[in-house]
Write a structure and sequence with these properties.
Blueprint: E1 3-7, H1 12-28, E2 31-37, E3 45-47, H2 61-81, E4 88-93, H3 97-107, E5 112-116, H4 130-138, E6 143-146, E7 157-161, H5 169-183, E8 187-193, H6 201-215, E9 220-225, H7 230-240, E10 245-250, H8 264-272, E11 276-280
Helix pairs in contact: 3-4, 5-6
């Protein structure tokens, strides 16, 4: 894990994402990219360092002043969260979020995206709902949604919702989560909600142990749960083991995500308050 992206609208909720990203970067030696997506007169991407200057006969005074204000606020965040051994790069992308995040991910080698959220259903908050869903839709790397109040000490256990997928896709998802878990020396719990008519427990245990072996997991457990409510089974188990993370491996054609609603990650973080990691296998 070398590069972590933190999209920010400079809200308090988004700041939480930067806090978590720095904690992860400090443990794995990654660089943090703090990026704001705002239309501005400086071109496609403005690196928020140095003075803001525009050489033109008719400068966009309002745009330049807005850019200066964004630059100052981002520099304040870097000063607040920058620590020894962690590098934070800042940039302002001249685009709306939906198109900007897609283009940014296509041009940069991002290993993890961290997005802060308040966990509240507030139409004024940028980084809930649509923006998180848009990011998951286009991202080939894991997307971590987090709200304020998380505890570093609790990030020793990751509960991953898993299902039986073809072509070892479950292992692909676990590989994407492995490095994040290793940053905190966390044990990964593979939790599957069983269809009792189709899948004997013994066969499922064998399958998920095999997927863990292919992914190279060192610290893991397999848990098969019988319940009619998949989300409730997942969250109850997370409470039982005092999980620091919840994780979802998304594959809309098959597997566990066909059971959940499309905004499962947002529902979980709003209901549980734990960091939620989503891996979209369709983009891998």
């Amino acid at each position: 894990m070398k590069k972590i992206l933190v999209p920010t609208d400079l809200s308090k909720a988004a700041e939480t994402g930067l806090h978590m990203a720095v904690e992860i970067a400090r443990r794995c030696g990654a660089v943090v990219s703090l990026v704001n997506f705002t239309r501005h007169p400086m071109g496609s991407t403005f690196l928020a360092t140095g003075d803001v200057m525009l050489s033109t006969d008719e400068p966009d005074v309002f745009g330049i002043e807005m850019l200066k204000a964004i630059k100052e606020r981002m520099e304040t965040l870097v000063s607040k969260y920058g620590t020894a051994g962690v590098s934070i790069n800042v940039a302002v992308v001249d685009n709306e979020y939906k198109d900007g995040i897609d283009e940014y991910l296509q041009s940069e080698n991002i290993d993890l995206i961290v997005m802060g959220t308040s966990g509240e259903q507030n139409a004024k908050e940028v980084f809930t709902g649509n923006h998180t869903e848009q990011t998951i839709k286009v991202s080939a790397c894991p997307v971590l949604s987090i709200r304020d109040g998380f505890s570093i000490d609790q990030l020793k256990t990751m509960v991953v919702a898993v299902d039986v997928l073809s072509d070892n896709k479950s292992a692909d998802g676990l590989i994407a989560l492995k490095e994040l878990a290793e940053c905190f020396d966390a044990c990964i719990h593979l939790v599957h909600v069983r269809d009792t008519k189709k899948n004997p427990t013994l066969i499922l245990d064998e399958y998920f142990n095999q997927m863990a072996a292919i992914a190279g997991l060192q610290k893991f457990k397999v848990r098969i749960i019988d319940t009619d409510d998949v989300v409730e089974g997942l969250t109850n188990y997370a409470h039982e083991v005092n999980a620091g993370f919840l994780a979802v491996i998304k594959n809309s054609k098959e597997g566990i995500f066909r059971i959940f609603s499309q905004n499962l990650s947002e529902k979980l973080i709003k209901e549980e308050g734990r960091p939620v990691v989503t891996v979209n296998l369709q983009n891998s």
